[in-house]
Amino acid sequence: MTNTDKTVVVLGATGQQGGSVAAALRADGWAVRAIVRDPSGHRARSLSALGVETVRGDLGDPDSLRAAFTGAHGVFSVQPNSGQSGADVTDEDEVRFGAAVAETAGHCGVAHLVYNSAITAGSTTGVDHLDTKNRIEAHVRNLGTAGTIIRPATFMELLVTPATGLDRGHLSFLMRPDQAMQFIAVRDIGRIVAAVFGSPDRYAGRTMEIAGDTLTGNALAEHLTRAAGQKISYSRLPTTPLAQGEVLGKLEALVDDGRLAGSSDLDALRAEFPFLLRFDRWLAGPGAGLLAEALRS
């Protein structure tokens, strides 16, 4: 049986990570079924144009999950969380949704489940929307279904959002100017997941931290300066006593102790996944449009 004879169900396909997974799977010849709230919506129609089957479903509706998973070879599981901008879910919702996906995949006879976790998983961080991942990982590991857990580093895309200050010639982020932190292009998350589904015997049962580059704040500024054609400086984000600042302070502490900074073996990852983008190549490729938009925000 070839990839074209197998279907992988992708959650979150109208978002960044799920969208990258759907695109990579299609490129590798898989049949892809995306669960969407509104198949008539713009993003769902864009998926259909790529050859992705879209089905109406809801993470809070077990019947819709069962209908979508029936006959599928694999499931890519990612959930919205309370830390996302505009999120309308609680931390308990995320855990409930992630557990439901894992359990339903098992009941429907899915051969391979890939769960998208976080690089901080495996320890208690004190940041609720990160610690939810530990509870969902436990559900995945307790299933009879073959499971793979991926823990992506911080997205390169987060460095070129309007909130980082690039339109003012400056980047502010979580690490100190001389402190190293790992990053990954969202596109590469999808390509890694496609590779995992393509070699189940190699990846079933594994938990994998993934990243594409390691950079200090100063190195980020240097790359951005070259790509933008104008001077970009760097400083660490300031924290405040407000609730949002309290979370930011915890995130910076997680960078300082290494849990959010990342510790992936990049040489080993690049040997396994040669397509992984370094930050400069991402800026010249998939990130070029995002950078241009951030500079004029």
User: What's the shape?
Assistant: globular
Rg (C-alpha, Å)? 19 Å
> What is the CATH-assigned architecture of the largest domain?
3-Layer(aba) Sandwich
* Structural class estimated from helices and strands: alpha/beta
Widest sheet, order of strands:
3-2-1-4-5-6-10
Total DSSP E strands: 12
Major sheet details: 7 strands, parallel
> What are the segments in which pLDDT stays under 50 over at least 5 consecutive residues?
none
Count of helical stretches: 12
Q: What CATH first level of the largest domain would be assigned?
A: Alpha Beta
Strand content range? 15-25%
Task: Name the average pLDDT.
Answer: 93
Q: Which percent range fits the helix content? A: 40-55%
Spell out the helices and strands N to C: EHEHEHEHEHEEEEHHEEHEHHHH
CATH superfamily of the largest domain: NAD(P)-binding Rossmann-like Domain
End-to-end separation in angstroms reads 49 Å
How many domain units? 2
CATH third-tier fold name of the largest domain:
Rossmann fold
Protein traits:
single chain, 297 residues, alpha/beta, Rossmann fold, UDP-galactose 4-epimerase, domain 1, 2 domains, seven-stranded parallel beta sheet, three-stranded mixed beta sheet, 18% strand
Walk me through the topology:
Elements: E1 7-10, H1 16-27, E2 31-36, H2 42-49, E3 53-56, H3 62-69, E4 74-77, H4 91-107, E5 112-116, H5 128-141, E6 146-152, E7 154-155, E8 170-173, E9 180-184, H6 186-198, H7 200-203, E10 207-210, E11 213-216, H8 217-228, E12 233-236, H9 243-256, H10 266-272, H11 279-284, H12 288-295
Parallel strand pairs: 1-2, 1-4, 2-3, 4-5, 5-6, 6-10, 7-9, 8-12
Antiparallel strand pairs: 9-11
Helix pairs in contact: 1-6, 3-4, 4-5
